[in-house]
Write a structure and sequence with these properties.
alpha/beta; TIM Barrel; 8-stranded parallel beta barrel; single chain; about 15% strand; two-stranded antiparallel ribbon
């Protein structure tokens, strides 16, 4: 496993990390969750991603129980939470000072840790001034409850404003952003955020590197069933596979599978390695519901060196084609 700095910070993250979204407390048993985390940890993964919204907090409870049972030294893993969707009542969602504080304390209880390594604002909150959120996050850092704070799916303009406010008011600025990034979803990471890598040293913990499973090739013959798209609460994911653009992407996936075959590897490993080729990616968050998927994903770094200019141009030609 290779390790990368989180932006300009000194924190070292495994370039491949492991997240709980969809699977923990929903798609897999707690025993399977522990097996998957153990395989990832033994492979060198040191970052485990979570959020208050995942299974309404149950995903953090599952992860916290696993961390307690395993007894891994606290300095060998990094754990995150995200704040925004905590409930349906007033002050149970959003990025107000009240919810940010209460959500942080609740996440620490569920994860059974004394502090959160990474704490993300899960979405921008149009109802809360950015300054209020920056002050709340900065206070949590100064209290020792959070080590690094950041954002998820914010715009470059919003992140820049948060950094500017922190600089002017001598507060702690955001360190990282968690955007979606894969072969079919590139604009934010490659274009919109480009100025921020230098100006504020932004780190990125990217999610959905396999495009919700599309880049595994398992949908090439239609929906195989028993996937996250089959879950009622994730019907919006299934809709991604039911329009003209999705059909075009499926055709490209079949061509990309040919590239992987020529390299003597698999499509999932190719897709993950492609993300790792971007030097502005601090870590690629992987997910899995089966042990063999974790083992497969962890081998992606082995082929990054094979993605030379010729291979990358071949991939780009497929992705940019109108077919």
């Amino acid at each position: 496993m290779n390790y990368r700095r989180l932006g300009k910070s000194g924190l070292q993250l495994s370039e491949l990390s492991f997240g709980a979204w969809v699977t923990f407390a929903q798609q897999i048993s707690n025993e399977t969750a522990e097996e998957l985390m153990t395989i990832a940890y033994d492979a060198g993964v040191n970052f485990f991603d979570n959020a208050e919204a995942y299974a309404n907090g149950q995903a953090e409870i599952v992860m916290g129980d696993i961390l307690k049972r395993k007894g891994w030294p606290r300095d060998t893993f990094v754990v995150s939470s995200k704040v925004f969707w905590g409930g349906d009542l007033p002050n149970q969602e959003g990025l107000s000072r009240k919810h940010v504080f209460e959500a942080c304390h609740a996440a620490m209880r569920r994860l059974q840790v004394d502090y959160l390594d990474l704490y993300f604002c899960h979405r921008p909150d149009p109802n809360t001034p950015i300054e209020e959120t920056v002050r709340a996050m900065s206070d949590l850092v100064r209290q020792g409850k959070v080590l690094y704070w950041g954002t998820s799916e914010w715009s470059a303009e919003q992140i820049s404003e948060a950094a500017k406010i922190a600089r002017e008011l001598l507060l702690v600025p955001p360190t990282m952003e968690q955007p979606q990034y894969n072969m079919f979803h590139r604009d934010k990471v490659e274009r919109e955020f480009a100025p921020l890598y230098q100006s504020i040293g932004l780190g990125t913990t990217v999610w959905s590197p396999l495009a919700s499973g599309l880049l595994t090739g398992k949908y090439n013959g239609g929906d195989p069933g028993d996937t996250r798209t089959s879950l009622p609460e994730y019907s919006w994911l299934r809709e991604q596979f039911e329009n003209d653009e999705a059909r075009s992407r499926l055709r490209k996936v079949k061509q990309l599978a040919g590239v992987a075959s020529d390299l003597g590897t698999t499509l999932p490993r190719l897709a993950l390695a492609w993300c790792l080729k971007n030097p502005h990616v601090s870590t690629v968050i992987t997910g899995a519901s089966k042990p063999e998927q974790v083992r497969e994903n962890m081998r992606a770094a082995d082929i990054v060196g094979q993605l030379d200019d010729t291979v990358m141009k071949r991939i780009e030609a497929i992705l940019s084609s109108s077919s």
